[in-house]
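Check this.
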Amino acid sequence: MGCSDADSIGHLFYSPSPRSYAVIRLDPVEMVRPFHDAQALLQAQAMRPKSYLIFLHLERALPWPDQPWYRFEIEPVASSLRPEDHTRGITSIRKIPPGE
């Protein structure tokens, strides 16, 4: 049985592209909770969840519609955006200067 484009519109899937940037948010408490380690949990509670800019370097598995996770080799870039510096080409819409 075939499927037209109109039939598949509600079933589109998204896979992040390798060699692009993304933001991840890490929650220290939820990351250590499965270990049932009271000391680690206490220390994690002193931290706040934080967002990080990452570079999706290499895709580690092929994306499939029935798999909700995408595995990538990532490279951390920064924990915050750089302040603007027009002399280096860093503006509100471009946070990584040319050539870096």
